[in-house]
Design goal:
Layout (H helix, E strand, L loop, with lengths): L9 E2 L4 E3 L14 H8 L6 E3 L7 E6 L2 E6 L4 E5 L5 E5 L13 E7 L4 E7 L3 H10 L4 H9 L2
Parallel strand pairs: 2-3, 3-7
Antiparallel strand pairs: 1-2, 4-5, 4-7, 6-9, 8-9
């Protein structure tokens, strides 16, 4: 499935863009507000969902200012404002990088115009065993418990 996706950002509809890294380079990381400022110039939709850093956060652009919200709670909800634009990183399902071993994902409700982040525990030891059974380095399994 993933190999079948075209490279680069994809506009899903008039409101939503998705990309792996930044909207101008799929291998680029958006680590903070300065990176987000540049990224906002490269998509025209209201929302852009991105990943690559595995760090759950939101960047909101209002009146030419960019605000960063770090998602640290197990559940966090945000109402989408009419006059703002958003860069949203849902985090990662099983490869966290924010020192929280729980998986992280986002649900965007287009009816209520709300984004909800969720953090959930999963069977970490089973996942670690599968990594080792696949012949991957043990460091990849070990770091899951640390969220790095």
């Amino acid at each position: 499935f993933l190999m079948g996706l075209k490279k680069g950002p994809q506009e899903i509809n008039k409101e939503i863009t998705i990309c792996h890294g930044a909207p101008y380079d799929e291998d680029y990381y958006i680590f903070g507000p300065f990176d987000a400022v540049e990224a906002f110039y490269h998509f025209s939709t209201k929302l852009c969902f991105f990943g690559h850093t595995h760090l759950p956060r939101i960047y909101i652009k209002r009146n030419n200012m960019v605000e960063e919200i770090l998602i640290e709670k197990d559940k966090f909800q945000l109402k989408i404002e009419k006059e703002a634009r958003y860069l949203i990183n849902p985090g990662s399902l099983g490869q966290p990088r924010d020192r929280n071993p729980k998986l992280s994902f986002v649900i965007y409700n287009t009816t209520t115009n709300k984004i909800t982040f969720h953090r959930l525990s999963y069977n970490l030891s089973q996942t670690q065993s599968r990594i080792l059974q696949a012949g991957l380095p043990s460091a990849l399994a070990d770091r899951l418990a640390l969220g790095i």
